[in-house]
Amino acid sequence: MIHVYSVADHLLAVRHGLTFELELTIDALFTADNPSALLTAALDRAMPALMPVEVRAPIQSQEVWAAGVTYFRSMTARRDESREAGGDSFYDRVYSAERPELFFKATPHRVSGPAQAVRIRRDSKWNVPEPELTLAFNAQGRLFGYTIGNDMSSRDIEGENPLYLPQAKVYAGSAAVGPALLVMDEPLPTSTEIAVSIRRAGTEVFAGATTISQIKRSFASLGEYLFRENAFPHGCYLMTGTGVVPPNDFTLQSGDEIAITILPIGTLTNIVD
Predict the structure, then answer these.
(1) pTM higher than 0.85 for the full model?
(2) Which residues partner with 192 through β-bridges?
(3) Does residue 135 form part of some domain?
(4) Based on the structure, what is the number of domains in the chain?
(5) For position 181, which CATH number holds?
(6) DSSP label of 109
(7) Residue 154's pLDDT band (cuts 50, 70, 90)
(8) Residue 214 falls within a domain, yes or no?
(9) 16 in any annotated domain
(10) Of the candidates 126, 151, 123, 147, the residue with the CA atom closest to the CA atom of residue 137
């Protein structure tokens, strides 16, 4: 496995605990037929480097999409938030249907990186982070890596009417990815844990965890549906849904710190603006 980090004007890769400077771009990885082979070849001619303090989101021209209702916990949460609008049965049907819920999440300029701010909507009163394992697909639809995603969501807007989903999900600062793109040929173990901690004024106000074994749908199926009748010339990221949902009386506040950890990828930390 190789960790790829985006810094000022180039990429760094960490392999076997050593850091190297790469003559590659994120777009080059996502458009390669075999990103892992391209990365390995670049490492063989790379020079050693120091890991900087600040890294950027590992994104260049990629769209970010997301899958919904992939966990049972997510299905029950969506049912709760949309009950008054009469949409609670929609999520039951999506959870059990063959076709997954897939939706557009962000373009690169809407995506925050590690230590950058994510935002809550000013016209929303119920906002939560959604910690998600995020898949990296190349332009041909090949799954070649993983990162951490934060799918910021306005639950009251989505719950008011399912047709408001784009407004609840897509806005400036509505997504974060990073800190690294983990490139590996073998799948992550199903025991891989996704953990989130939210701190307010130095005190933890919410913590939760799940494992990717709780995801109902296979990554291959999600990828196939995403690329069905669609094209991603620069590849794309796909957030795979959340199984960690704060209680209904919780909402984010400006200044909150959100830390999402998925080993072996790392920890993605963002402050709420």
Answers:
(1) yes
(2) none
(3) yes
(4) 1
(5) 3.90.850.10
(6) G
(7) very high
(8) yes
(9) no
(10) 147
The domain of 97 spans 63-272
Distance CA 138, CA 273 (A): 32
Amino acid at 223: G
Q: Is residue 227 part of a domain?
A: yes
Name residues whose C-beta falls within 8 Å of residue 108's C-beta, 6 or more positions apart in sequence: 57, 59, 60, 61, 62
* Longest CA pairwise span in the chain (Å): 60
**Beta strand segments in the chain, E:** 2-6, 11-15, 18-22, 47-48, 63-68, 101-106, 111-112, 117-118, 127-128, 131-137, 143-151, 153-154, 175-183, 193-200, 203-211, 236-239, 257-262, 266-272
- pLDDT exceeds cutoff 80 at 90: no
59 pLDDT band, cuts 50/70/90, is very high
170, 175, 181, 182 alpha-carbon torsion, rounded to 10°: -90
Helix residue ranges per DSSP H, 84-242? 88-96, 155-160, 165-169, 219-227
